[in-house]
UniProtKB/TrEMBL annotation:
Origin species: Pygocentrus nattereri
Biological function: Ligand for members of the frizzled family of seven transmembrane receptors.
GO cellular component: extracellular space
Molecular functions per Gene Ontology: cytokine activity; frizzled binding
Gene3D superfamilies per record: 3.30.2460.20
GO biological process: canonical Wnt signaling pathway; cell fate commitment; cell migration involved in gastrulation; embryonic viscerocranium morphogenesis; heart looping; neuromast development; neuron differentiation; pharyngeal system development
Keywords associated with the record: Developmental protein, Disulfide bond, Extracellular matrix, Glycoprotein, Lipoprotein, Secreted, Signal, Wnt signaling pathway
Signal sequence residues: 1-21
Predominant subcellular localization, coarse grouping: secreted
The name this protein goes by in its record: Protein Wnt
Length: 349
């Protein structure tokens, strides 16, 4: 099924007004199965080189559509406890803060780059992509009781194809947008991929009589995207503000307040300060925190004081149904009853 014509047109109009290197995230709205080359030019948010990759590898595009959906879902969950909660990437309406070079923009670019390579790497493992297979078996000898086997996530292929697709808009010579923004987006995208590389860990499965785990078959697998997003959130909170100034024969990004050192490869960088996101301001990309749920007992960013920006909050009650009085039966299942209770919630004024 094709998405509605009005949705496609709206998405195309919105992304055409921006120089966004992540406008391919509009693919999260697509519900069509891409099996014909002519469908590529109807997909929202693609630059010419991305559309060409679509035409030559239709199979890959389904994985990229999935990556766009994962970015939106993961970003919103990661920032659910903060004033900015990824409302900027509510496709197809992308808000201006992603083009102002803010730290929110830095996070979204980094997560997007990591997500697309992550999704491709895992698609190789599951057999959803025919052009790639499992990742290579490590060359080092495992410890006694361990052996290499299984199907490793193909991180190499994911990074190779993912970076080619996600970095394409920033590498177009005639693309609109400042050089400083392009450098920032390319840098943060690379930070996302570096965090992804660090997320490749050893995973094992036990073998043995009666679950004794006398031998373990192991492979290299990626952590879930939510774990990668949390690492990037920590980098978001400690991101470095930079300026674009001459360094030698060309302009580079250097830390604004501590420009005696170059930008570190593992830090997120941003050019413009963010609004406080307390009140609605569409020009700045803020939807405000009115009607956002807050935590009355928290002292963190989700507290009613911080989330509501001092405006106060309104309480309301809600009935929730939960599993209760659970019993374990030998062998081997659990039965539970359903209990209803009333809880008090709070929303910002």
């Amino acid at each position: 099924m094709f998405p509605s014509l009005s949705l496609c047109v709206l998405a195309l109009l919105l992304v055409s007004q921006q120089g966004s290197g992540i406008r391919w995230l509009a693919l999260s709205t697509s519900n069509q199965h891409i099996n014909k080359t002519q469908q590529c030019k109807m997909l929202p948010g693609l630059v010419s080189s991305q559309a060409q990759l679509c035409r030559t590898n239709l199979e890959l595009m389904q994985t990229i559509v999935q990556a766009a959906r994962e970015v939106k879902k993961t970003c919103q969950k990661t920032f659910a406890d903060m004033r900015w909660n990824c409302s900027s990437i509510e496709a197809p309406k992308y808000l201006p803060d992603l083009e102002r070079g803010t730290r929110e923009s830095a996070f979204v670019y980094a997560l997007s780059a990591a997500a697309i390579s992550h999704t491709i790497a895992r698609a190789c493992t599951t057999g959803d992509l025919k052009l790639c297979t499992c990742g290579p078996i490590p060359g080092d000898t495992p410890e006694p009781g361990y052996r290499w086997g299984g199907c490793a996530d193909n991180l190499h292929y994911g990074l190779l194809v993912g970076s080619k697709f996600s970095d394409a808009p920033m590498k177009m010579k005639k693309k609109s947008g400042s050089h400083a923004n392009k450098l920032m987006h390319l840098h943060n995208s690379e930070v996302g991929r570096q965090v992804l590389k660090d997320a490749l860990v050893m995973k094992c499965k036990c073998h043995g009589v009666s679950g004794s785990c006398s031998i373990r078959t192991c492979w290299r697998g990626l952590q879930d995207l939510k774990e990668i997003a949390m690492d990037l959130k920590a980098k978001y909170l400690s991101a470095t503000k930079v300026v674009h100034r001459p360094m030698g024969t060309r302009k580079q990004l250097v830390p604004k307040d501590i420009d005696i050192r170059p930008v570190r490869e593992n830090e997120l960088v941003y050019l413009q300060s963010s609004p406080d996101f307390c009140t609605r301001n569409e020009k700045l990309g803020s939807v405000g925190t009115q009607e956002r749920q807050c935590n009355k007992t928290s002292s963190g960013s989700d507290s009613c004081d911080l989330m509501c920006c001092g405006r106060g909050y309104n309480p309301y009650t809600e009935k929730v149904v939960e599993r209760c009085h659970c019993k374990y039966h030998w062998c081997c299942y659990v039965t539970c009853k359903k209990c209803e209770r009333t809880v008090e919630r709070y929303v910002c004024k």
